[in-house]
Design brief:
The chain is mainly α. It is built from five helices and no strands. It has one domain. The chain starts with a helix and ends with a helix. It is a multi-pass membrane protein.
Length: 123
């Protein structure tokens, strides 16, 4: 039964999206550390809170993998896509905020995200 779930997830490429999301979380965490170090705002409390938030988020995202199969049809898979893409969007926004704190011009990236947002809303 679990093998069937994993095969369906691979077919729907949800696991790939989850992998990209995990990578974005790692980039966000380290860019946040660098930005805090540059701004002289780094503390162990902030670092620990960041780690715990990322772990809790990933646990929640993984929790919804088997839950998606309890919903009829492809409803659960569609909901997972929406959840994962939405969360990825938030991670990208956070990475851009960290880059801005580091003094990096994020205008081209923000323009790209706006174009992507417009494209997705038209579909």
């Amino acid at each position: 039964m679990i093998d069937e779930w994993i095969n369906q997830l691979k077919e729907q490429q949800i696991l790939y999206l989850l992998s990209i999301l995990a990578g974005a979380m790692i980039v966000d965490f380290f860019s946040g550390i660098i930005a805090a170090k540059i701004k002289q705002e780094i503390t162990s409390k902030i670092g620990i809170n960041g780690i715990l938030r990322k772990i809790a988020s990933m646990m929640l995202l993984v929790f919804f993998l088997p839950v998606a199969f309890l919903l009829p049809g492809f409803t659960g898979i569609v909901m997972l896509y929406v959840l994962y893409v939405g969360y990825l969007w938030l991670e990208l926004q956070s990475i851009l905020e960290n880059y801005k704190k580091m003094g990096i011009d994020t205008t081209p990236f923000r323009h790209f995200l706006e174009l992507l947002k417009d494209f997705m809303s038209k579909k």
